[in-house]
Amino acid sequence: MKIGICSDHAGFEYKGRLMEYLENKGYEIKDFGTYSEESMDYPDVAHPLADAVENGDADLGIAMCGTGNGMAMTLNKHRNIRAGLAWNTEIGALVKQHNNANILVMPARFISFDEVMRITDTWLNSEFEGGRHQKRIDKIPVRQA
Ligand code: RB5
Fold first, then answer.
1. Is 78 marked active-site?
2. Which CATH number is 87's domain given?
3. Is the pLDDT of residue 144 over 90?
4. Is residue 111 situated within a structural domain?
5. Residue-level pLDDT at 77
6. Domain membership flag for residue 126
7. Using CA positions, which residue lies closest to atom 10 of ligand 1?
8. Among 9, 47, 98, 133, which one carries the catalytic annotation?
9. Which residues form the pocket of ligand 1, taking CB atoms under 6 Å from any ligand atom?
10. 3-state SS, residue 137
11. Domain span at residue 34?
């Protein structure tokens, strides 16, 4: 499985550590940046990650910024992206089981790296439940007022 990953400066340290953790587990990782702790704008890395997941260059994605909200807002502008913000393992499971999130977003400034690893493992190992949740997902796409 190929996983695309990105962060802004707030998530940079965790991104590097998570890439190493996942590579050691056998996942293929594609890094969309950022590549230093220098302050940057999260949409500059979120959009390329979303493009990669939408066009199949990555099977799933992981994104981190300070709160996770900037990444989630940007990623969810893409029609076929369901970016889910998770800050504990229970939500990490539910965001796959109920929302079939194809990008996991985590708030780097508000959780430990141990939590990042456990949330990521939980999300990767959870299965979408389909059924009534598929019906709800089908109603998500953007509507014009
Ligand atoms: C950066 O200071 C911060 O605004 C960013 O990491 C993120 O939390 C935005 O949503």
1. no
2. 3.40.1400.10
3. no
4. yes
5. 96
6. yes
7. 70
8. 98
9. 8, 10, 42, 65-67, 69-70
10. helix
11. 2-138
